[in-house]
Amino acid sequence: MTDDALVSAAKRGEQEAWRALYVEHAGRLVAWLRTRPTGDSAAAPEDVAAEAWFVAASKVAEFEGTSSDFGGWIFGIARRISATSRRTWQRRNTRPTEGEELALEPVPDHGPDVAHQEWLRAVLAGLPPRERAAVGLVDGLGMDPRTAAEVLGISAVALRVARHRGLRRLAGGSSVRASLEAIPDVAPGI
Where does the record place the RNA polymerase sigma factor 70 region 4 type domain (predicted)? Predict the structure, then answer.
């Protein structure tokens, strides 16, 4: 597979190419990382995403593909960093120091604007992890199934099965229908 012009420019270190790749993938990456459990409250999704971009910048010479393929590649890097962070936390069982309060100004959310995010997270939390990840990537973030399968480290068939099962569970869940009726402007006509 040959690189497209954007990836070739990024390999040459052109700032505009990196900016375009960042704009295309960063918001979805952070939004996806927010749905993944880390166990370690000190490992914020933004930190994992920043480390993924750092790794991508240092290893971009090894990457071959288009700018769309780059999205799958960086999501895969972030998944591995997140898993490493989770394993490290489990070994060390680290916790932030109590009593320390950070005086940081709130940062605007660059993820997709999803109405009723808490409701959506609660509904998706009822799904098994693989189904939740498959539905979240394909239906929540709009990622194509081939790339989503690559991100999760599973085959396209396994992703299709997990997504189908997750959507079937959601469609059959009476609690989902009841909560939809309680929120009239979520999805009219459902």
Answer: 118-170
The matching CATH number, chosen from 1.10.10.10, 3.40.309.10, 1.10.600.10, 3.20.110.20, for 115-184 is 1.10.10.10
Contact between residue 20 and residue 6 where contact means Cβ atoms under 8 Å apart: yes
Cα 137 to Cα 146: distance, rounded to the nearest angstrom: 11
CA 148 to each of CA 26, 33, 141: distance values in angstroms, whole numbers, following the listed order: 15, 13, 10
Instruction: Judge contact between 116 and 74, C-beta under 8 A.
Output: no
In whole numbers, what is the pLDDT of the chain averaged over residues?
81
125-155 tens-digit pLDDT:
889 999 999 998 898 888 999 999 998 999 9
Q: Give Cβ neighbours of residue 44 (< 8 Å, ≥ 6 apart).
A: none
